[in-house]
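In this section we walk through a basic example: taking a raw amino acid sequence and producing a predicted 3D structure, encoded as discrete structure tokens. The instruction is simple. Fold the sequence below.
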Amino acid sequence: MLRYVLIFLSLISSSYVNAEIKYKIIKNLENTDNLGFNFEQNINGKIENGKCTIEYPRKIFCEYARSNNKILVSNGKSLVVKTRTSYYRYPLKKTPLNLILDKNYLISKIYELEETITKKNLINFKIMEKENKINLFFDKKTYDLVGWQNTDIYQNFNITFLSSIKKNRVISKKMFKLPIQN
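The resulting token sequence is shown next.
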């Protein structure tokens, strides 16, 4: 009998801890207007890195290090990837970033999803939305978004890790202006 009581108390305690984690992640997202961070991105084994700024909803500006002046910019409607020699423009809604850059969408999904806590102190939420499968990772101590996994529009497996995260900085709105084509 004591064994069953202990199991029951353990389940209640576990549910409370999980609800508290979700609440803290949601509160953190609600209180975040923008993020600046360094990133490392692995696309099918090719590793790139640089710096990004996200402004909710759906805006991002990334400068890649050691690459043909590569930048990635979203103004909330379109996504542009530009290098010295190429220029690609996509409707943002056709990319997984449309969901990742929408904090209200993320909050609504986190409310309904079950989280997994990994050995590396990461909290993972798996989102399945139409053709998009996205794994979001949050830090267990800070509750900050620290990365995601998804398949991009070319069916490449993409893993992005965030570091040196700074929230709610003063940023220029011009940053999210789409660059012109060469």
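Looking at the output, two observations stand out. Confidence is low (pLDDT under 50) at residues 2-17. The chain is about 25% helix and 40% strand. In the next section we compare this with other chains.
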